[in-house]
Every structure is written in C-alpha cells, then in structure tokens.
Write a structure and sequence with these properties.
Distance between the termini: 93 Å
Structural class: mainly alpha
Keywords: Membrane, Transmembrane, Transmembrane helix
Number of strands: 0
Low-confidence stretches: none
Shape: elongated
Order of helices and strands: HHHH
Strand content: under 5%
Radius of gyration: 28 Å
Length: about 100
C-alpha cells in the first residue's frame, strides 16, 4: 500500500508552483514591455520629425540627398536627438511654438 512518507511527498508536490505555472504572467509582462517600447519609439520618432521640420524652417536651404552618407548622418542625428534631455527638447518646442505664433 505504501508508506506514510510517500503520501506526504505526493501532497507536497501538488502544493508547489512551478515556472510553467506562470506562463500567462510572463506573456502579459512581455506584451506590456513590447507595447511600451513601441510607444516610446513612436513618440521619439514623432518628436524627431517635428525637430527636423523646425530646423528645416530655420535653415530653409537644406539639400536633400539620398546618398549613403546622408542616410548615415540622418541616423546619427537621430541618435544625437535621443541623447538630448527631454527637458531641453520640450523647451525648444516651446520656443519654436512661440516664434511661430509671432510670425503668423
């Protein structure tokens, strides 16, 4: 019939949680993390496009070239833009919006 120790061992195993028990939690955390990353990247790209348009308006004489070096410089400009502090970017937008209001 078995020993008492065998029954205790079986009941202890049924009360334990295994890593596989949390697959839904892992999936949910992964989905939220990925969504947050995508949202952040879209926000930064949107800010960069606005920043680039403002610079183009101020310079108003930018040459558009599709060469590899031009694309590489755009990527480097984007990386530099990401490195800037968000406070500085918001301040720049506030200054840009106030100057556009004065021009109109």
């Amino acid at each position: 019939m078995g020993c008492r120790g065998d029954k205790k061992l079986e009941s202890d195993e049924s009360n334990q949680l295994h890593l596989i028990s949390f697959w839904g939690l892992y999936l949910l955390c992964g989905a939220f993390t990925l969504a947050a990353l995508v949202f952040f990247l879209l926000r930064v790209i949107h800010q960069f496009v606005r920043y680039k348009k403002q610079r183009a308006n101020h310079l108003s004489s930018s040459l558009s070239s599709s060469s590899w070096s031009s694309r590489w410089s755009q990527v480097m400009n984007f990386v530099d833009f990401i490195d800037e502090k968000e406070e500085a970017i918001k301040k720049m937008y506030a200054q840009g919006d106030s100057t556009q209001g004065q021009v109109s």
